[in-house]
Amino acid sequence: MFWTYPTTSPAHFSNLGVSLIFRLGLTGIARCRTSNIMTTTNCCAQCGVAGCASLKTCKSCMEAKYCDATCQRNHWPMHKQDCKLRAAELRDEALFKDPPAKEDCPICFLPMPGKILSCVTLPPATISSVPINYFADAHQELANLTTETYYSCCGKSICGGCVHSFHESGNLKCPFCNADRNKTVEEQVEDNMKRVEANDPPSICLLAYCCYKGLNGVQQDHVKAKELYVRAADLGFNKAHYHLGMLYHEGGNLKKARFHFEAAAMLGDELARNNLGSIEFESGNMERAVTHWTIGASGGDYLAMHKLKICFGKDYASRVSIDSTLAAYNSSCAEMRSEARDSYIRFNLETM
Q1: What is the pTM of this model?
Q2: Which is nearest to 232 in space by CA: 14, 13, 5?
Q3: 343 CB-contact burial (10 Å; exposed 0-12 / middle 13-18 / buried 19+)
Q4: What is the pLDDT of residues 158-195, one digit of tens each?
Q5: Alpha-carbon distance values, 2 to 48, 211, 234 (Å)
Q6: CA 37/CA 67 separation, integer angstroms
Q7: Distance CA 151, CA 179 (A)
Q8: Interatomic CA distance for residues 350 and 346, integer angstroms
Q9: Is the dihedral of CA 269, 270, 273, 278 positive or negative?
Q10: What pLDDT does residue 205 have?
Q11: In the chain, fewer beta carbons within 10 Å around the N or the C end?
Q12: Which sequence spans correspond to the domains of the chain?
């Protein structure tokens, strides 16, 4: 009836040092000038024919225009380098802009964090201390748990605080469709399959996870799991992109891992954003790594805030930038807190 959404986060993604602050130079736009004709004007970049209403724009750089596919192919040797540079600029503009707001719990209307401990009530972070990170280190059993619980009966996701409150009050029915939650695993899988048939991304992603791990009576099948993740990712589900990134990273395909982590990060996935920072760090791209962690910390990610604290301690970050990020981090954490969520965290500490 309801499944708690699983996450994975390799240890090396959360224990890296940091260096430098990255400032994007997005004001200068590299125009394609691979011919005598400016490709940003309303004319074909290959033959120069102007005013044609049917000119097609290059889908990579979004600047060069062509009469048809033949002109585009003929112009490619000259256009290739500038096109790739501009496409990379556009990708970075999308990647490093403010991510979308977190999804709110439909019951308490509070933002749902990527990890349950992000919303624990503790003193605010400072230049010298990130209390939530220390709390997570002391309670590793909770460190990778999410606060989100998915109801396969009606396709709704609710925060753990609200679910725990329902349990405490004796409410054993779905708050949306009033369906009985006291079902067998087989009945839960059956409910989820109905949502899969309806093309519901969270249900597809959950089925993929069960296929990959061989859980809940679902036969283990890594190939089918990947196909299901791709299906959910094509529907714009950030967690599916995150899991695909994890699969490709574990398989050594860093290019595809980076692609899916970036897609997830642009959709607001803070775990993927943190992993991107670690990948950039391992690749020696310190400035980009710190930019990812700054964005993540501003959204309430305690791991990212901890790394930026280390950065400041090594004199790689300015006081102005760290103060600004601290303010945003503490504000985001405060927005996610509630007594119900704290009670849920205490309950897990007592029972795990």
Answers
A1: 0.82
A2: 5
A3: middle
A4: 999 999 998 888 887 888 888 887 788 888 888 899 99
A5: 60, 17, 24
A6: 14
A7: 10
A8: 6
A9: negative
A10: 95
A11: C
A12: 2-20+98-351
Q: For residue 254, with 0-12 CB atoms within 10 Å meaning exposed, 13-18 middle and 19 or more buried, which class applies? A: middle
- Average pLDDT of the residues of the chain: 84
Copy the structure tokens of residue 27.
């004001």
The first and second tokens of residue 175, run together, are: 């708050």
Residue 236: Cβ-neighbour burial (10 angstroms; 0-12, 13-18, 19+)? exposed
And the tokens for 245? Answer: 């990134």
Q: In b/e form, how buried is each residue of 108-145, taking b as 16+ CB within 10 angstroms?
A: bebbbbbbbbbbbebeebeeeebbbbebbeebeebbbb
Give the Å distances, CA to CA, from 196 to 153, 187, 303.
11, 14, 33
- Give the Å distances, CA to CA, from 293 to 120, 260, 275, 320: 20, 17, 9, 16
Q: Tokens at residue 92, please?
A: 């970075």
Biggest CA pair distance of the chain: 75
**pLDDT tens digits, one per residue of 14-39:** 444 333 333 333 333 233 333 333 44
Closest CA to 104 of 268, 239, 261, 262: 268
Q: Which of 77, 68, 64 is nearest to 31 (CA)?
A: 64
Handedness of CA 273, 277, 282, 285 (dihedral sign): positive
DSSP state of 59: T
> Distance between CA 191 and CA 154 in Å, rounded?
9
Provide the residue type at 194 as one letter.
K
- The position carrying tokens 């990812």 is 292
Encoded tokens for 318? 């300015």
SS3 content of the chain, % helix, strand, coil (to 5): 55, 5, 40
pLDDT digits (tens, 9 = 90+) for 212-238: 999 988 999 999 999 999 999 999 999
| Residue that has been written with the tokens 């695909």 in this structure | 244
Q: Give CA–CA dist 148/5, Å, rounded.
A: 6
Length in residues, the chain: 352
DSSP string, 69-100: HHHHHHHHHHHHHHHHHHHHHHHHHHHSSPPP
- ∠ Cα 73 77 78 (to 5°): 110
